[in-house]
Amino acid sequence: MHTIVFATNNKHKLLEVQQILGNTFHLKSLVDIGFTEDIPEDFDTLEQNASQKAWYLYNRFGVDCFADDTGLEVDALDGKPGVYSARYAGEQRNSQDNIVKLLADLKGISNRKAQFRTVISLIISGEEHQFQGVVRGSIIDELKGSDGFGYDPIFVPEGYNLTFAEMELDLKNRISHRGLATQKLVAFLLGM
Predict the structure, then answer these.
(1) Is 141 a known active-site residue?
(2) Residue 120: helix, strand or coil by DSSP?
(3) How many other CB atoms sit within 10 Å of the CB of residue 149?
(4) How far apart are CA 10 and CA 13, in angstroms?
(5) What is the pLDDT of residues 121-164, one digit of tens each?
(6) Is the pLDDT confidence value at 1 over 80?
(7) What's the pTM?
(8) Containing domain of residue 39, as a range?
(9) Of 37, 62, 114, 168, which alpha carbon lies 20 to 30 A from 151's?
(10) pLDDT reported for residue 26
């Protein structure tokens, strides 16, 4: 079984990605390799941040790894919060504060269209490959559901009447931005 490091300690992300990877790969987190520092995210695009995080980990530990960066891009807010989604309400990176700020920014706006976008940068044998997943949907005014994380309780994907936070993990993984990007990653890894 091939071991690969995911540049995160977010247990929700780890669970989602490991479920998609199945038993073909052994997924390790940052804490599993003894890394507890913050990884730099100094750029203004998801692609650049994902790449920076993956290369930082690869250069430091020399391990096959991947990193992701995800943003919620709201049409009426010109794509914001985007790359700043995790810290939209401040550096404390509090999901509840981020949701409150987003809903306040959308108050009185009827266009609630948005998309979640994930970019994964994989570095394997010293070569980088990127994969993207996008899911369109809309922002609702009240929080629904208790699963998931981040903006999941207020995002309803197109074609569904449930928020990501109300969905079973299997369904979310099939249709979510991270799920779609991870499926591309897995297809690439399996095809190697």
Answers:
(1) no
(2) strand
(3) 14
(4) 5
(5) 999 999 999 999 999 999 999 999 988 789 999 999 999 999 99
(6) no
(7) 0.90
(8) 2-190
(9) 37
(10) 85
Burial pattern 83-107, b for ≥16 Cβ within 10 A else e, equals bebbebbeeeeebeebbeebeeebe
Indicate the helix (H) or strand (E) that contains 52: helix 46-61
Q: Where residue 123 sits, what CATH number does that domain have?
A: 3.90.950.10
| Mean pLDDT within 33-43 | 90
Catalytic residue chosen out of the listed positions 42, 69, 78, 170: 69
Q: What is the pLDDT of residues 82-109, one digit of tens each?
A: 999 999 999 888 999 999 999 999 999 9
Distances in Å between the alpha carbon of 161 and those of 2, 20, 140, 167, 170?
Answer: 38, 23, 11, 10, 16
Contact, 114 vs 137, CB < 8 A? yes
d(CA 119, CA 181): 7
Using DSSP's 3-state secondary structure scheme, residue 162 falls into coil
SS3 call for 106: coil
Local structure of residue 145 (DSSP, 8 states): -
Place of tokens 């591309």: 184
